[in-house]
Amino acid sequence: MLLRDVTLPGSSAVTSLRLRDGVIAEIGPGLPAHAGEAVHEAGGALAIPGLWDHHVHVGQTAQGYARLDTAGIASVDEMLRHLHAALQQRGDGPDALVGFGHRLVDMAGEPTVAALDAVTGERRPVVLIGGDAHHAWMNSAALAGLGLAPRRGIVAEDEWFDAVAHLDDLPGVSRDLEAGVTRMQQDALARGVVGLTDMEWATNWRLWQGREARMRVRTATYASGLEAVPGPSGTPLGSDGLVTMGPLKVIADGSLGSRSAYCRHPYAFSGQPDAHPLGGGYGVLSEVAEDLVALLSRAAERGLGAAVHAIGDAAVGVVLDAFAAHGSAGRIEHAQLLADEDVARMAALGMRASVQPAHLLDDRDPTEEVWPEHAAESYRLRDLQDAGVALLMGSDSPVAPVDPWLAMAAAVHRSADAREAWFPAQQLQPAEALAASTDGVPALRVGGQADVVLLEEDVFAPVPCGADGLMLEQAAREAAARLRAVRPLATVVAGELAATRCA
Ligand SMILES: [Zn+2]
User: Fold this and answer.
1) Residue 334 C-alpha to ligand 1 middle, in angstroms?
2) Ligand 1 centre from 398 Cα, in Å?
3) Per-residue pLDDT tens for 95-133?
4) Which CATH number describes the domain made up of 59-173?
5) Most buried residue, 41, 309, 319, 382, by most Cβ within 10 Å?
6) Cis link prior to 398 (omega < 30° from 0)?
């Protein structure tokens, strides 16, 4: 394919890109179209390297597409109307409908099986899962399909936890999931995403062998699946080479939200140490982290790199000790809270930091609450960048959407609202955020993969700084707003047009 008349970041000169056999074969002005070659007239659009989301849970994200959204529904009557409309849209058929999101405390009226049956009929199973995931309101067909006894009301707690594991037994549920995977890919491609790392809790490599990949996918495995992997990291899993074996994923600690990220200092709870079940604790180190060196060795024997989830500063320290002892380098997922010495150690060991800048928008207030004296040590993107640690940006979708533009905007401005930037000393320049959102590709070049995104305008100009060396607040805010508003014109994966805005 010939991409005719593009501009490259930092230059106003118009040039063209020839893509052949999945790589960029030529870059230069006035390239002639060859016989039989597809030509895409880019009209001067900015051409940037394809974007990556380095941390996605594909299954959970896809379920979000497949499920009827019932969040915010305020009464049983409203739910029944919502459901009726959804069923009409889907037409007749035996396929189950799964909803997600309602909260019983917000919903007036009694959720009975009989009321659901009256709307759904007897044939099609309907499962409405509460937003807390601790209960579901089902009709008689769903109860029967899941082997549950008839009843008047909802299924909750342990009975529900047992039932949810068999949801796939209901007709159409796994097909809906696969339809969600397709839609997730379409949306990601429309945002310029050409690749992702799938961190789902599943045998991802096997699932992806049965899927149509429209973008590049690296399939992570967890330790339990290590012995069964089809080959080392990078092994192609299909004939087109888009899906490849990814890293071993390991979870070393918990999270900020559940106060379980493993820290060098105790959590603070607004002066009431007993106000939380884990109050005053240091978080938790997972069992597997205690024997991480052995696990890294088992992975290395199979040619797999490792991506280790560590959010608290103490967990990061333990993980770095393990990589140092093993003598290899890998990825730290999140690296949310970092001691000074560990920023330097990450650089010295050649570790990469897989970070999710959009989370800082949500974590800003909780961080100030539970780590008040250490908030400045969170999301140290600038410190990592300056130390020479390669940044890999992602979303951890469904925690945040698969949207690299949101991630880049958060990395640049570090504020989701009218407040000024949170720790502006850690801001990244737009071009740095872009580089961290690719697969380590700083610029399009001859011989590189033919993964290209076309944009209407250049939104990567440097943000001016003041005398203190920090970005000017208003300028950073505006730069982030421009990034958030980007809708790519076209996305090219492996030399093929995969999404276009003006189809
Ligand atoms: Zn994750």
Assistant:
1) 9
2) 9
3) 999 999 898 888 899 999 999 999 999 999 999 998 877
4) 3.10.310.70
5) 319
6) yes
